[in-house]
């Protein structure tokens, strides 16, 4: 048994919000932290976010899941066309963070240890009562039988409970309200951190959400007050 199950939504290079979030939540070796993917792209400091998470993993049980932006980045590594399209979707900011001058976006600058870290991300994580995933799941199929692209790409739309009966906790579909979308059987915690919204850490066990912004703000939400049908 862990003290707290903690899920962190789409970080997208927002190092200020991530640092403040970890300072507020103070994860320990008795917690389990799951980062729901899309750590990279768009925000100013992907490199810093990856470094911080790699360091945190040395002292806290931490698992990062594969998002569609990690998929973009891995595809860009060996393919100029894929790299060109990723640059347009936020990859440019990612690669600039690997240049000390923040001037040149060169994929060769990404550290080998960072590639290995990103390659290790699985598509989902399951506990006895929860499924953690970046995108979404097909509600009618067991996880082992579905198209794995769903895990990284499927949007949080027309959501129904998963056949397993487990609660699904995901990111990917940005909530412009800045609030997690809490359907109880499924919760989306991409709260638009990189576009003036919030970075969310859902404490599944405590039924609260901690949120921070790139502007240095912090707030806590009672998940039971934001339930939607
Ligand atoms: Mn995504």
UniProtKB/TrEMBL annotation:
Lineage: superkingdom: Bacteria
Calcineurin-like phosphoesterase domain segment(s): 4-138
GO cellular component, one term: cytoplasm
GO molecular function: bis(5'-nucleosyl)-tetraphosphatase (symmetrical) activity; phosphatase activity
Entry-linked Pfam families: Metallophos (PF00149)
GO biological process: RNA decapping
Stored Gene3D superfamilies: 3.60.21.10
Signal peptide bounds: none
Protein name from the UniProt record: Serine/threonine protein phosphatase
Native source organism of the sequence: Gimesia benthica
């Amino acid at each position: 048994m862990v003290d707290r199950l903690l899920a962190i939504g789409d970080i997208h290079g927002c190092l200020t919000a991530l640092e403040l979030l970890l300072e507020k939540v103070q994860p320990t070796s008795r917690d389990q932290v799951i980062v729901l993917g899309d750590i990279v792209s768009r925000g100013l400091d992907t490199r810093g976010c990856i470094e911080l998470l790699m360091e945190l993993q040395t002292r806290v049980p931490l698992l990062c899941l594969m998002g569609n932006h990690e998929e973009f980045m891995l595809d860009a590594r060996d393919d100029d066309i894929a790299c060109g399209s990723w640059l347009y979707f936020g990859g440019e900011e990612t690669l600039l963070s690997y240049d000390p001058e923040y001037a040149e976006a060169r994929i060769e600058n990404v550290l080998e240890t960072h590639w290995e870290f990103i390659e290790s991300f699985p598509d989902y994580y399951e506990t006895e009562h929860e499924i953690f995933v970046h995108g979404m799941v097909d509600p009618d199929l067991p996880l082992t039988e579905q198209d794995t692209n769903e895990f990284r790409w499927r949007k949080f739309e027309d959501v129904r409970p998963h056949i397993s009966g487990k609660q699904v906790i995901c990111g990917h579909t940005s909530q412009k309200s800045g609030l997690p979308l809490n359907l109880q059987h499924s919760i989306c915690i991409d709260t638009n951190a990189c576009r003036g919204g919030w970075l969310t850490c859902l404490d599944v066990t405590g039924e609260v959400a901690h949120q921070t912004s790139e502007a240095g703000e912090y707030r806590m939400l009672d998940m039971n007050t934001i339930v939607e049908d």
